[in-house]
């Protein structure tokens, strides 16, 4: 059985040039023409960082916050205060998650603009917004049954299915599509689109070489690993491999000393060190998952080996997604095999 670290990966000391965030509905300049905005979230992770880029006669906004009335009220305050005098002329959303795209509909309607995003993110958001029928719910329940959930956990899955639509306002029916390698001119500066994968289908990051600034969204965060999970819509997907590859490409593409503007926690410098730290973190989790499959195990059993703290049903869902992502990656490496028991529950064991 391979050895693996039983202690957490040691965090590197990142450089945080802005040690305190702006107040809600206020702004803080972090680079010429780049304003930091913070909005509240109704989750355990209680905030999101958004960005306003000076675009001459208007503002380019990056991400929106969650789709609730409180966040919309904060935007109204900003438009009457710190951002007053110029309209929003472009809205870019890094990915489809509710805290990033939740108000894309109202904001694009207010300013008569089109959402800018990758096709994969816009499509996935539109799909989940419109889902919620019996077949969708049945697929959700069947996926987690295959993971080893019992009746109580499955009832919670059924009750929570379709929750995406509760956190967003109706998304726009069209999109101005961006792709990896595109360049956007904002305020006379060039911003390069970098598409990362794993956390979401086609997550857009933005890099300005003139400013040496990377707007990273959730693709890389300073203290937490973004959720990298397998979900019921794509049960055989391999997002962890995509995420690890994206971390390596971030290191290859951008300078080690660039200022990283993440969606959560504080801006930082230390991109390469943080990428290496996340690579090591997932290597550790892979070895733990592999060790848990020394005897035939369900995904739920492996989850309990990986996450030994108490989890509520909502957290268990995210943990199941991450667990299956690690198991699918080990299968792709040829280290594990997946079979099914008589009830169709997935069983994992060493190859």
From TrEMBL:
Pfam families: B_lactamase-like_C, Lactamase_B
Annotated ranges, domain Metallo-beta-lactamase: 47-264
Name of the molecule in the record: MBL fold metallo-hydrolase
């Amino acid at each position: 059985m391979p050895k693996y670290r039983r202690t957490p990966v040691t965090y590197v000391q990142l450089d945080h040039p802005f040690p305190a965030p702006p107040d809600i509905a206020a702004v803080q300049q972090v680079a010429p023409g780049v304003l930091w905005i913070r909005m509240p979230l109704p989750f355990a992770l209680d905030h999101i960082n958004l960005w306003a880029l000076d675009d001459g006669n208007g503002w380019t906004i990056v991400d929106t916050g969650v789709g609730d009335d409180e966040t919309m009220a904060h935007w109204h305050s900003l438009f009457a205060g710190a951002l007053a005098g110029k309209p929003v002329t472009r809205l870019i959303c890094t990915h489809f998650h509710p805290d990033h795209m939740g108000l894309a509909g109202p904001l694009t309607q207010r300013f008569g603009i089109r959402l800018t995003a990758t096709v994969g993110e816009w499509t996935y958001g539109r799909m989940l917004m419109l889902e919620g029928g019996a077949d969708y719910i049945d697929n959700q329940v069947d996926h987690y049954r295959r993971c080893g959930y019992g009746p109580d956990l499955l009832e919670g899955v059924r009750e929570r299915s379709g929750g995406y639509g509760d956190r967003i306002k109706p998304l726009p029916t069209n999109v101005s599509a961006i792709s990896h390698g595109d360049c956007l001119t904002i305020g006379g500066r060039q911003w390069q689109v970098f598409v990362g994968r794993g956390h979401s289908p086609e997550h857009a990051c933005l890099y300005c070489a003139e400013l040496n600034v990377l707007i990273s969204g959730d693709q890389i965060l300073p203290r937490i690993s973004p959720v990298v999970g397998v979900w019921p819509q794509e049960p055989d997907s391999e997002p962890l491999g995509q995420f690890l590859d994206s971390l390596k490409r971030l290191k290859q593409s951008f300078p080690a000393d660039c200022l990283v503007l993440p969606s959560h926690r504080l801006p930082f410098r230390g991109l390469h060190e943080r990428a290496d730290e996340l690579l090591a973190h997932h290597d550790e989790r892979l070895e733990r998952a592999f060790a848990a499959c020394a005897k035939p195990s369900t995904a739920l059993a492996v989850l309990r080996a990986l996450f030994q703290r108490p989890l509520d049903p909502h957290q268990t869902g995210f943990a199941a997604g991450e667990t299956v992502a690690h198991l699918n990656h080990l299968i792709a490496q040829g280290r594990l095999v997946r079979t099914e028991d008589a009830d169709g529950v997935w069983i994992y064991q060493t190859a």
